[in-house]
Design goal:
globular; 1 helix; mainly beta; 203 residues; 15 strands; 4-stranded antiparallel sheet
Length: 203
């Protein structure tokens, strides 16, 4: 909770993940009046992380600053060490297993989801960004005019991305291998499309 008294404190949960310890971590947006002593509503926005055990008991709650000036969070994922990766409107940040900030980065566009595979962090956007677990940018994938909102990674490092209108596969070097149109049911079509390409196996 905020350290100072506030007149309004609201939260909205956006996503959740199970961490390496089997605990549930939710992420959302917290909004409150930063200075309740004045008549004007001084709007303050924070990222709120809440960790609960399997019995629903709260372990901790953490408030983190948004890296930029856009106050929307979309997704969260946990790695094998219990560290947390949060994405939102034009940003990604990492927090440790106690909810303390480790690193952050900003970029153009929405970060609608995050995927972790083999020590890499994948953030699909107009330009998909691939980081190591320490926040160092390793590579990018230029998606052109499409805007992926979900990514899966195969054992050989191929990147499958789903958009509102297409499914694409890039190899581990970021080269486009194939792209198919999808008018609706995009995520269902990911599985169907992969099954049609016998050389590709999603894990």
């Amino acid at each position: 909770v905020p350290e100072t008294p506030v007149a309004v404190f609201t939260t909205s949960n956006k996503d959740m993940t199970l961490d390496a310890y089997g605990d549930l971590v939710t992420v959302g947006n917290a909004g409150f009046d930063g200075d309740p002593t004045t008549p004007a509503y001084d709007s303050v926005h924070k990222i709120v992380l809440v960790k609960q055990d399997r019995n629903g008991n709260q372990i901790w709650q953490s408030l983190l600053d948004y890296p930029g000036e856009r106050y929307t969070v979309y997704g969260i994922e946990s790695d094998d060490s219990g560290n947390l990766y949060v994405v939102g409107d034009s940003f990604i940040l990492a927090a440790d297993s106690n909810g303390q900030l480790l690193w952050q980065d900003t970029f153009e566009g929405l970060g609608l989801s995050v995927t972790i595979k083999d020590g890499l962090v994948y953030v699909p956007a107009r330009t998909t960004r691939i980081y190591d677990l320490n926040g160092n940018l390793q590579s990018t994938i230029d998606n052109g005019d499409i805007y992926p909102w979900e990514v899966q990674v195969t054992d050989d490092g191929s990147v499958i991305q789903a958009t509102w209108t297409a499914i694409t596969r890039h190899d581990a070097q970021g080269n486009l291998v194939w792209s198919v149109n999808a008018t609706y049911r995009t995520m269902d079509l990911v599985v169907e499309t992969v099954q049609q390409h016998a050389s590709l196996r999603l894990i």
